Amino acid sequence: MSKVVKFGGSSLASAEQFQKVADIIRSDPERRYVVPSAPGKRFKNDTKVTDMLYACYDLAEADQDFEQAFSAIEARYREIIEGLNLAVSLEGEFETIRKNFREKAGSNYAASRGEYLNGIILAAYLGFTFIDAADVVCFDNEGTFDQDKTNKLLSARLAESEYAVIPGFYGAMPDGAVKTFSRGGSDITGSIVAKAAQADVYENWTDVSGFLVADPCIIPNPKRIDVITYRELRELSYMGAGVLHEDSIFPVRQENIPINIRNTNAPGDNGTWIVGSTCQKSKYVITGIAGKKGFCCVNIEKAKMNGEVGFGRKVLEAFEENGISFEHIPSGIDTLTVFVHQDEFMEKEQKVASYLYRVAQPDAIEIEADLALIAVVGRGMKSTRGTAGRIFSALAHANVNVKMIDQGSSELNIIIGVANEDFEIAIKAIYDIFVLTNL
Ligand code: ASP
User: Fold this and answer.
1) How far is the CA of 187 from the centre of ligand 1 (A)?
2) What's the gap between Cα 437 and its chain centre?
3) Separation of CA 169 and ligand 1 centre (Å)
4) Could you tell me if the CB of 183 is within 6 A of ligand 1?
């Protein structure tokens, strides 16, 4: 058995947090491969080391004095090393990084140093081998992650080390230039390492005890999700549910390796299991609710459009030609509505509208802004009658006007469009009917 364990920034923000992490790793010899983030926030208004690195590098790039900003970063690591009484010195590393900043090595390189340095400390503290992610996580010349090359290199390298630390968030391009994933990308590294190690579990340790049924900023103390499938999670994270980087599901999903979200500050909690499929029913008909504000919809009307072959293609072409991706396209007999991100669409709206008039010749186009989309997700919906009915009666009771309904044929989710101002009320109404009342 082997487990890959990834620890987020808040789990590695201070010497005290490092001790908790080491206790967790040492309590289970199967926890063999460790992927650390850079030190995160120690308290509410603290700054993550990654953000400090970006800011410091901006100064270097602008030929301004970055010494003070750099010293503050050094201090974060010194505090950890001293707090752990470690005989490690990063002074040589700091000098190299300073020099590379002066030589403008790039912001990807700069940001990656947060994980790199934290990895060196953690490997020394645990007595594990340090594997630089730049040697084993590969990107191609276009900067796209190279899954096959990485998997070959990394699995060969892991086979040589029984216990190792591989920093998260970055890798390198063929010319050796460091390249990072998008923010929060250490989750992706953890998943890549789990695949290469053919691990039995990918444990992702963070500062919450798993996924919650709804956003705690909207619902006070929401219930926790015990088990969720990859597909359900994908729907929820696309719609804004945080905790895990949405791209981190793909490498482990191919191998059917379960992800277990755990809390470094409450290691006794079981957390949430993310699995390929399960016979475990969720406690409620729905598994989770998530949503996003800031959409607008373009309603296109044309008499007898349903009989016109190619009408949909012409409409979508207007969006494609202007580089806008769409979210949903509910349609009626003489109407078709396209939901898009408001911020992307706003500056191009007149171009899209004139393209539409020219190519699709509609009778009318109407644009509505400030809409929110809510996804109600659950594998349990498939076998339960009346789910949609309950959602809409709850929304009607809460005085929420539903602008759009979209249920995929997989019966895994129902997407609802409401006005931005009704967003929180709608989520609360749905949560109450399924979780609190649990009828
Ligand atoms: N340190 C990086 C960030 O703050 C990556 C990560 O923590 O996953 O985004």
Assistant:
1) 8
2) 30
3) 6
4) yes
Cβ–ligand 1 distance for 248 under 6 Å, the answer no
Task: For ligand 1, say whether the CB of 114 is within 6 Å of any of its atoms.
Answer: yes
pLDDT in tens, 256-315: 999 999 999 999 999 999 999 888 777 788 999 999 999 999 999 999 888 889 999 999
Minimal-distance CA residue to ligand 1 atom 6: 184
pLDDT at position 438, please?
A: 62
Instruction: Please check whether residue 304 is in contact with residue 391, taking contact to mean a CB–CB distance below 8 angstroms.
Output: no
Alpha carbon distances (Å) from 265 to 79, 125, 207, 343, 425: 20, 19, 6, 38, 32
48 lines ligand 1 (CB under 6 A): yes
The ranges of the chain with pLDDT < 50 are none
Contacts of 387 (CB under 8 A, 6+ apart): 285, 286, 376, 378, 381, 414
The pLDDT, as a whole number, for residue 308 is 87
d(CA 35, CA 169): 9
Closest listed residue to residue 417, CA positions, set 342, 357, 362, 312: 342
Euclidean distance between the first and final Cα of the chain, in Å? 41
113 CB near ligand 1 (under 6 Å) = no
Q: Is the CB of 272 under 6 A from ligand 1?
A: no
How many Å apart are CA 158 and CA 195, to the nearest integer?
11
What is the atom index within ligand 1 of the atom nearest the CA of 114? 1
**How many Cβ atoms sit within 10 Å of the Cβ of residue 55?**
15
Residue 383: per-residue pLDDT: 76
Q: Is the CB of 237 under 6 A from ligand 1?
A: no
CA distance 354 to 11: 52
Candidates 426, 5, 58; CA nearest to 218 is 426
Q: What is the largest CA-CA distance in the chain?
A: 77
